[in-house]
Amino acid sequence: MLQKISSLIVTVLLITGCVAPQTRAPATNNDATNAEARKQQILVVEDYMTNYKKLQNVSSRIITSGVDHCGDKTAGYYGFHYWNQDSFQSTWKEITKSQYDLDEKFKILHISEKSPAEKAALKEGDVIVSINQWLVPIGKDANKQLAQKLAEQARGLSPVEIAVLREGAEHKISITPVKSCDFQVHLASDDTKNAYADGKNIVVYKGMMDFFRTDEEMALVVSHELAHNAMQHIDAKKKNATAGSILGLILDIAAATAGVNTNGDFSRMGAGIAGNAYSVEFEQEADYVGLYIMQKAGFNIDNAAGFWRRMAVNNAQAITIKSSHPTTPERFVAIEETVKEIKGKIEKGVALNPELKK
Ligand SMILES: [Zn+2]
Questions:
Q1: How many angstroms separate the alpha carbon of residue 20 from the centre of ligand 1?
Q2: Is there a contact between 197 and 229 (Cβ–Cβ < 8 Å)?
Q3: Which domains does the chain have, with CATH numbers?
Q4: CA 241 – ligand 1 centroid, Å
Q5: Ligand 1 centroid vs 336 CA: distance in angstroms?
Q6: How many helices (H) and strands (E) would you count in the chain?
């Protein structure tokens, strides 16, 4: 019996020791693989652009509607984003350059829905020539200079004349900026389910974007992050935030994540990881104030709490373990209460202001 077993073991060892492919998989050639790699990279860029535009459309409403909560952290807002050949790095630079016909000049990448830029009929693809007669430079620092000029000219909220090239002809577009919170919203390309605010910027990760099922869910997260910035949970001056640019592509994100605390709000919540950015109280405040901002931006808040059930399913630890964030059941219940409070105020026709501590 013992002998039989040991010979069986030997046989098994022999078999497992000689494992090699049994079938003939198709041979691949380099040209086909390279061509496919290119196609897949183009898909990545297209997916990034789709997400970027969705995020900016939702954020546009939130940063303008949240203005009452942002104190002196406000700016003039146009509602357009631009880019050029240097907006992306390395592989992505070459792909966007050829795919979207980019050079050193700044081209309108996106116009947020219902923004001043949309009302003024600025168009995607327009090349920016001048701002109130100031000629847009090219080369090193041009991006920074353009961002500074735009911010400066928007400050008074009076019409700004932007000359653009469209199909070879110059057009003069007059945009009247509106007041908004002075925070930039960025899309990070990482596949993590996360978002964070650093006092000056709001960063949403692609993994989080993929998780959202509705614009309302996206609005909930952006409003929460805006509330962190608006309520000054992090002193922006202490943080090395991205400067100057209104274009939030991968290039900017690289700078943003290098200098700020990237322990975001969502993927790690409840996981007990040290070094989280905010205390439980700040998180509760961001949920609370964020919901008011979301309502003011015109998003339906009826299903806001449900988001935390979906997050719980995604991260079961967060149901019971409290760390820097409240647990998902606590967040669910608190948000339901806040929704009731807001609905009550709407019914009574009372101003939508968060309640202050007595
Ligand atoms: Zn938070």
A1: 51
A2: yes
A3: 75-180 (2.30.42.10), 182-348 (no CATH)
A4: 17
A5: 17
A6: 12, 11
CA 217 / ligand 1 centre spacing (Å): 14
Q: How far is CA 293 from CA 130, 195, 230, 264, in A?
A: 34, 17, 10, 20
Out of 125-139, 179-193, 292-306, least confident range: 179-193
Give this prediction's pTM. Answer: 0.84
Helix axes 30-65, 280-296, angle to 10 degrees: 80
Q: How confident is the model at residue 13, as a pLDDT?
A: 54
Q: What is the pLDDT of residue 3?
A: 58
How close is the Cα of 91 to the center of ligand 1, in Å? 33
Q: How far is the CA of 341 from the centre of ligand 1 (A)?
A: 21
> From the CA of 4, how far away is ligand 1's center (Å)?
64
Kindly report which listed range (16-25, 64-73, 101-110, 135-144) carries the lowest average pLDDT score. Answer: 16-25
**Ligand 1 center to residue 49 CA distance, Å?**
25
